[in-house]
Amino acid sequence: MSGNLLDNLFIFMLAGFIGFEVIKHVSPLLHTPLMSLTNALDAIAVVGAIVLAGEHKSNMAAILGTIAVVAATSNIVGGFLITDRMLKMFKVGSKPGKGGKS
Amino acid sequence: MSESFAVPQIVIEVIYLVASALFILSLRWLSSPKTARHGVLAGEVGMLLAIGGTLLHHGIIDYKWIAIALVLGSIIGVPLGRVAMTAVPQRTAISHAFGALCVTLVGTAEYYLRAPNVPPFMMAVLGMEVILGSLTFTGSLMAAGKLQEILPQRPLTYRGQNFVNLSLLAVAIGLAIYLVVHPEAKFVFPFIVGIPLLFGISMVIPIGGADMPTVISLLNAYAGLSAAAMGFVLNSKLLIIAGALDGSSGFILSVIMSKAMNRSFANVIFGAFGQVAAAAGGAEEAKQVRSATAEEAAAILSAANKVVIVPGYGMAVAQAQHKVRELFDALSKRGVDVKFAIHPVAGRMPGHMNVLLAEADIPYDRLLDMDEINGDFPQTDVTLVIGANDVTNPAARTDASSPIFGMPILDVDKSRTVMVIKRGMSPGFAGIDNPLYYLEKTLMLFGDAKGFVGNIVRELGGGQG
């Protein structure tokens, strides 16, 4: 148990630093998509909920797990969908038709 | 754990390992608009792998409810992914609420499955998980309500508010510590869910609309931390990593937002901006402003070489971004160099203005953030402010008595001419008068942002082709 705990703390620490380094480089332009994407990724909590709903160790656990799966799944689907929609809109200047300045 | 006939646990763990790597790549690719969509794809693949791997877990005996829940969640998720771009801030708040709900429910179920055999460290992270989860749940719902304007956007304050809030939080933490020592005290657990639920509501009540970017970012960080805590409870490294990534993202954004407002987290949460502002406003009012018509504005704009447009929440409210694009096109066609100056806290969430302008097809290389554009203002002929107020207020630089003194602003007053589209002379969200409006070089364009920009575009089209 305590071995696991320490391993997990190391992982948390390292992932935190990686997060800082990676996200520091995200341009302010994309801060809204950043938030919706991390939100979708965070919904990975669904794995815990799935196990809870599927193992059926108690009725209460199964019910809470099922609701949790619904909540997390809606975040996964909605989060990826809207992030991609937003990113599709970001275009560079030189496109034909509109304005057309250099 | 016991071996079984199903897929060995090591296979699932390897799948999780790949998913973790994909998640990190996903965020890495988001650093540039060019690779950002690969990032979404990497995230999606990682997610599918992780869910697929989890379904192979040997302990799962019943797939029926999982299937129903996955389908139901997708049905709810699709409309949440298709909301209008103007509704993105409230959508984001709602998704924080859902994420936090999931974490809280799982934490609650885990406690009752394990109690009374909960080791102290496990109970401590469980407590953290449900406290953060439940306060994020109601806090985000409140934020969404304010953003959707179901709830009043004005800060609601009362005497002793901070004392009540801090006490709620302290009691919840105290009870969680009690559970660490006495994990068998099952009757205590509902309180460490229920009290933070109340705290979430009372925490967001006093927060005004202009502070929403910071609050949403903070709630994002809490949601990530609570998911990471859940990872500790379930011994899931994937969840710890995803939670840490989300948490650090929320934290970085919170820091950027509060720096952009020159305020500390504590000041945002406990400061209730409105009060200070009310005391400061309402001084002298007989100052003169100069106003102009759409025709005059169009003439000035078309004579300029360099124009900077400063959009704010008012542009979003008036849904004026498409008219602004027409203005951008009309001026660009005349050879005017048009750029957009985006303040970090313009709008209601980080990056809000960029998304709206990108939706209106304005190329992203024209959208510059505060540090990039501030040096350009002295060489700018005309700055057009559309629905932004406090982020252009020069009092932040000069007037030490102003509540926003020290806040970094867009130096629009340094450009040669300033035009401000505004409904009337009412002060901005923070309730602070803006000396910019009384400058010699400033012209006020009174009217609705969408209508006024539309009129300017018409004038530009009507003039010499």
Describe the structure.
The complex is a heterodimer of chains A (102) and B (465). Chain A is mainly α. Chain A has a domain at 27-89. Chain A is built from 4 helices and no strands. Chain A is flat and about 55 Å long. Chain A starts with a helix and ends in a 13-residue tail after the last helix. Mean pLDDT of chain A is 87; it is low at 95-102. Chain B is α/β, with parallel strands linked by helices. In chain B, α5 (120-147) runs antiparallel to α6, α6 (161-181) packs antiparallel against α7 and α8 (212-234) packs antiparallel against α9 (237-260). The radius of gyration of chain B is 25 Å and the shape is globular. The interface between A and B is large, with 87 and 116 residues.
Strand order of the largest sheet of chain B: 3-2-1-4-5-6
Radius of gyration of chain A: 20 Å
Task: Determine the number of helices of chain A (DSSP H or I, runs of at least 4 residues).
Answer: 4
State the separation between the terminal residues of chain A, measured CA to CA: 62 Å
Shape of chain B: globular
Q: How many distinct folded domains of chain B?
A: 2
Mean pLDDT of chain B: 87
Count of extended strands of chain A: 0
Helix content of chain A: over 70%
Number of helices of chain B: 18
Strand content of chain A: under 5%
Oligomer: heterodimer
Keywords:
heterodimer, A: 102 residues, mainly alpha, 4 helices, 75% helix, disordered C terminus, B: 465 residues, alpha/beta, Rossmann fold, 2 domains, six-stranded parallel β-sheet, 6 strands, 58% helix, 7% strand, globular
Question: What's this entry about, in short?
Answer:
The complex is a heterodimer of chains A (102) and B (465). Chain A has four helices and no strands. Chain A has 102 residues and is mainly α.
